[in-house]
Amino acid sequence: MTAPTLTRPAPPAGDAGPRRRRREPSHRPYYLVLVVLALFAIGPLVTLVFNALKDNASIGTSPLTPPTELSLDNFAQAWTQGDFATTMRNSAILCLGTVAGVCVIAGLAAYALSHLEVPASGAVIGWLFLGSALPVQLFLVPLFFMWTNLGLTDSLFGLMIIYWATDSPFATLLLRSFLIKVPKDYQEAARLDGASELRIIMRVMLPLAWPGFLTVGLIAGLWAWNEFFWAITFVHDPALRPISTSFLAFQDQFSTDLALTSAAAIFMLGPVVILFLVLQRRFVAGLTSGGVK
Length: 293
Fold this sequence. Notes:
With 293 residues, this protein is mainly α.
């Protein structure tokens, strides 16, 4: 008696054997999109550098081509005519004061909304959302009369107060998203050790939420450096004007000196680009993270 032989079932019709592995889609379209976006972002900066090295006649003839001759005369003339030594100093003072004030105001408010029993905290958060969404031009007329009566016009401190008020709502909401994820066990342990609320903020909460404070400081500082609307409205003394108002020195009633304006834009963008390149990893980490590692 012979043992039965085992036979494999025949493959179904249309199947010629084991299925081939599917080919992974090519990544070239994604790289192409990224290259186009990079050129779209970097192209205007490269063109700005080219125009800063040309004269107005060359810019009018070919604004997108590299310069035929390299000359730094535009930078020297723009620095003197725009009084960048004064305006850059004023903007540095404004940025430091704005960052310090916003971090203190928003930090205390965010701590109260995230770790203390605040009555009607939901209404407060809704008010902060509304305050960060409303256009600031709505407050121009009453604020101008108030600042005039208080003697805060033509004052860097008066301009700082405006920046504190306009930046603090968004900064508070951002910092609250960091602090709300900090476990309350740290806070309770510090209270059991006899620490006051201020000591808890400085010694416990601040080290844990420093990425959020760094992010808020960068956003507030960059906004104060680039701000033009409030600066030109409330500061009329040329000795107190920030760097964003230096562009007014390169235009008259009927024309604008494009070469000097491009050189002035390099002066304004240079510190911002360098600061962002140095702190970009911490800045992105602060925007994407929301709690304690």
